[in-house]
Design brief:
The chain has about 500 residues and is of the alpha/beta class. The protein has three domains: about 280 residues, 3-Layer(aba) Sandwich (Rossmann fold), CATH 3.40.50.620; about 120 residues, Isoleucyl-tRNA Synthetase, Domain 1 (Orthogonal Bundle); about 50 residues. The relative contact order is 0.10. The protein binds one RNA strand of 77 nucleotides through β3, α1, α5, β9 and α7.
Length: about 500
RNA sequence: GGCGACGUAGCCAAGAGGUCCAAGGCAGAGGUUUGCAAAACCUCCAUUCACCGGUUCGAAUCCGGUCGUCGCCUCCA
């Protein structure tokens, strides 16, 4: 089946056909690294991580580039505040970012270029834009001339006339048109700078993505991604620069933009000061919870963030892992090479729960591809995944499921693996996941594991002597602190309430 | 003001002309299980998709209007 993608440039769903059959070039705007990343960044990273995983799964050879903007006005300003070198500051935040992204289970891109290491490519591109008559120098600065580029505004649906009308800040008189933007900024004292044909200076904000995407992917490539807030001016300007420099069009064949994360129905953004960092979230729960929250929504819709919603996603994820654990046990017992006919017979023997599980596993891959092909509809994919969760749990609740039914559970295990590969959800060993939840939640609630275990031991003693009053009192006390006790045939276990 | 998105059960959220039903999650009610619980499982939970018109044999899905929410237009993922 063919993938269909919503292309911001066309504002419609289009069949995805890469420039070169079987190969995909994909560029995603990374982060300006002057602070810790927030969950809005995480949304973009996770969105394109899933798209990348899916394209690879479909058999494409994907070159995936995601940049670090390690030198720009904000990096310089922050470095000055802290009295450190700008590149040292951005280097530190790149390290932090890598930790955060690993916590979110992101696959590494093919290339992660830094602006500061591509200054020559940037200078070269600016020179070509000037030579092609689309930019001009003004006292050491270089500006892009928007009126020289007829297609300016094609992505965001605005015209240069609109921009003149809507102009709010008094125009810099070095610019010929208020919407003209800097490709190169002349050096000011104390700022990092590089030599150039226009004197010492540094790149403007948008040019780095044009230069680096061209360097790694060529003048025309398949997919460019980023947050919807980048459509204007960043991506509009990127198109202008790239096409003006290379003389080729379209610069990008499919533009993909993810929706924003909102807090209390308001966009989370630096200017509003309502930021939640990725590390703050990772301290309290596994990164997969955030993945699930995001992937439960379509990537273009806004996601309202709140701790209540995170709690719900954690509950759902926990349920997924319980089913996954059942399936894993079956897989460990039976392996995955039971003949189909034997599995069909087994399903019959188990009646409805057996037939339902087999039908869920047999249709799983097809349903998953159908939803992902349709503009990466992860919300629908997750619906399919939870159908499998229910079928697995239902089957697993039967008395002989664990032993005799193991081949069917093994089948479910394969499906969980596929979903984990594509979505990055359910990738952990269930035992590891449950442990991670326990320790993170305990820490968040300021409780200690040894205390919980002592209490539990005491309760087990009481239960042995059938002293239900004491046992129940301990359980109530634990429950009051958020610890849920579960009595099973193999003794008592506990979990943290989420 | 310009450009754009969206309004589906108590909450979150898919579905984009009929043929498998308006998926799935959370919450809720009843049941199985249990020393009692918890977890899990079973059953129930939108005659209806913001509102009003229109197109069609047929619309949550297409078109027009009304109301409401949000984003971009300024650094932003």
């Amino acid at each position: 089946m063919e993938i269909r993608i919503y292309n911001t440039l066309k504002r419609s769903l289009e069949p995805f056909r890469p420039l070169v059959a079987g190969r995909v070039g994909m560029y995603v705007c990374g982060v300006t690294v002057y602070d810790y990343c927030h969950i809005g960044h995480a949304r973009a990273m996770i969105t394109f991580d899933v798209i990348y995983r899916y394209l690879v799964h479909k058999g494409y050879h994907v070159t995936f580039v995601r940049n670090h903007t390690d030198i720009d006005d904000k990096v310089i300003a922050r470095a000055r505040e802290q009295g450190v070198d700008p590149l040292e500051l951005s280097g530190r935040f790149i390290e932090a970012l890598e930790e955060d992204l690993a916590g979110l289970r992101l696959v590494r891109p093919t290339h992660e270029p830094k602006v500061s290491e591509h200054i020559q490519e940037i200078i070269h591109l600016i020179s070509r834009i000037i030579a092609n008559g689309h930019a001009y120098e003004a006292r050491g600065d270089v500006y892009f001339a928007v009126e020289s580029f007829r297609r300016y505004g094609q992505l965001s649906g605005r015209t240069t006339a609109d921009m003149r009308a809507g102009e709010r800040i008094e125009a810099d008189h070095r610019k010929k048109h208020p919407a003209d933007f800097a490709l190169w900024k002349s050096a000011r004292p104390g700022e990092p700078s590089w030599e150039s044909p226009w004197g010492p200076g540094r790149p403007g904000w948008h040019i780095e993505c044009s230069a680096m995407s061209q360097h790694y992917l060529g003048p025309v490539f398949d997919i460019h991604g980023g947050g919807s807030d980048l459509i204007f001016p960043h991506h509009e300007n990127e198109i202008a620069q790239s096409e003006a420099g290379s003389g080729q069009s379209p610069f990008v064949r499919y533009w993909i933009h993810n929706g924003m994360v909102t807090l209390a129905e308001e966009k989370m953004s630096k200017s509003l000061g309502n930021i939640i960092s990725i590390r703050q979230v990772l301290k309290e729960m596994p990164g997969e919870v955030l993945r699930l929250l995001f992937l439960e929504h379509h990537y273009r819709s806004p996601v309202p963030y709140s701790s209540e919603r995170m709690g719900r996603s954690l509950v759902a994820l926990d349920r997924l892992y319980q089913a996954r654990e059942l399936a894993l046990k079956g897989y460990r017992r039976a392996g995955n090479d039971t003949p189909a006919a034997q599995k069909a017979q087994l399903a019959e023997d188990f009646g409805d729960p057996g037939r339902d599980l087999l039908s869920a596993t047999n249709s799983f891959s097809r349903r998953l591809h159908a939803s992902m092909d349709e503009d990466f509809n992860t919300s629908q994919t997750i619906g399919t995944l939870f159908d499998l969760v229910r079928a697995t749990n239902r089957f697993g609740a039967l008395p002989k499921a664990a032993k005799k039914g193991a081949p069917l559970l093994a089948e479910a295990h394969d499906c969980f693996e596929l979903a984990a590969t594509l979505l990055g959800i359910g990738e952990s060993d269930p035992a590891v996941f449950f442990e991670e939840v326990k320790s993170k939640r305990l820490a968040a609630m300021d409780l200690h594991r040894s205390w919980v275990e002592d209490q539990l031991q005491e309760r087990t003693q009481a239960r042995k002597t059938r002293d239900w009053a004491t046992a129940d009192a301990i359980r109530t006390e634990l429950d009051r602190k958020g610890i849920i006790v579960m009595d099973g045939p193999q003794g008592s276990t506990w979990r943290v309430r989420v």
